[in-house]
Amino acid sequence: xxxxxxxxxxxxxxxGLPLHVIESSALEGFLEGQDAAAVTWIRASGFAGAxxxxxxxxxxxxxxxxxxxxxxxxxxxxxxxxxLAAAAGALPAGTYRIASxxxxxxxxxxxLGWLLSGYxxxxxxxxxxxxxxxxxxxxxxxxxxxxxxxxxxLTRDLINTPASDMGPADLEAAARTLSEDFGAQISVLEGDAxxxxxxxMIHAVGRAAGPGRAPRxxxxxxGDSGPALTLVGKGVCFDTGGxxxxxxxxxxxxxxxxxxxxxxxxxxxxxxxxxxxxxxxxLIPAVENAIDGDxxxxxxxxxxxxxxxxxxxxxxxxxxxxxxxxxxLGAEETPDMxxxxxxxxxxxxxxxxxxxxxxxxxxxDVAGALSMAxxxxxxxxxxxxxxxxxxxxxxxxxxxxxxxxxxxxxGSITAALFLRRFAGTGSRYTHFDIYGWSPxxxxxxxxxxxxxxxxxxxxxxxxxxxx
Length: 467
Prior knowledge:
Blueprint: E1 17-22, H1 27-32, H2 36-45, E2 54-58, E3 64-70, H3 74-77, H4 83-88, E4 94-100, H5 107-116, E5 132-134, H6 142-160, H7 168-182, E6 185-190, H8 193-196, H9 200-206, E7 216-222, E8 228-233, E9 235-239, H10 248-251, H11 259-273, E10 279-289, E11 301-303, E12 309-311, H12 319-331, E13 337-342, H13 346-352, E14 357-361, H14 364-376, E15 381-384, E16 401-402, H15 411-420, E17 428-433, E18 437-438, E19 448-449, H16 454-465
Parallel strand pairs: 1-3, 1-4, 4-5, 8-10, 8-13, 9-10, 12-16, 13-17, 14-15
Antiparallel strand pairs: 2-3, 6-7, 7-10, 11-12, 14-17, 18-19
């Protein structure tokens, strides 16, 4: 990954052009305190305090004396996020320091959005750099915000890298680099060793991939005290659909099918960088769902690690298969909390679109904490139901479970119910069915790979785990 892509606050905290954040209704009050020349300039520029507006105001010598950014009103701000970043994008290169107008409760998120505006994926082409630096606002924990930004950078870089350079071995290499950076332990089972270790579904999904792209299970551990937290991320580095091959239009974005793995690695980085007192475990089944004479077939029946049998009715429903073995392994240690992230179903996108991260939890305390944290962290999530009456839809009769129920109804819910069968009963289990991609450029969220749900979970962890 491109370690030069670090997003940090300005190092000289005494420098910076004064930056005033101005709501539409506060503009006239602000102008009353300015000299006549500044008022004339601001009015002539058309600055009205609207969202995304910015204005550079010269002093008597013609050099910039201050900058203004519009903050609209609360109703319009509710339609998006990272509005300070939206305005900052129009400012020229330089260092800026918040002088007035930014609500204290919004300072952390708005400054995070500013940092994320500097993200560029430049592995294959120089994308330039974002030149507007921000001094960390008063009252903001700069190290925490920088850690959140760094975790998001890792997630985005992993997702944005095409499968030619982000196969199972490359995903393993990224996990090893992360473990080295923070002194974590890591072990990997690869290829036929998965059968010997009793991970038959991970092996079945990934065995048809070409040379150097063998399936594997990545197991990383960090921390030796505190509550146990296990993160499981779907690492399908490319998904052709297998023998139930996807049409071309559906295959174009399948480099992002390892978005769950990218998300848990980014979240793990934040947890370790902030030294949370937890026993962290990260499990990533890394595979490529390819087409070959050895590919698993519709109609096959696989036996999972926990002994449940699964009838394969569609080889394009492979993510839940590899996650099942990993969840079964995680459940064997009964962690205090286990959370899976996966780009699992198109049904979730139909239900909530690309901006919301749907999650499933049977625990009302977990659900409430995540929903609240998602709002505060500008990482919107939405609770979906583990609807028990739909359990019958994932039971085909010939085997314990069906990986692709017919009928087309409740696809995200039935996938979540399938995963719950492998998560055990002794841990609080939560599943995120994420998209992992921003379809268009937005403030703080450039088009391309995107983390979802990780900041919400990180913000909720202290309360949920009693930290």
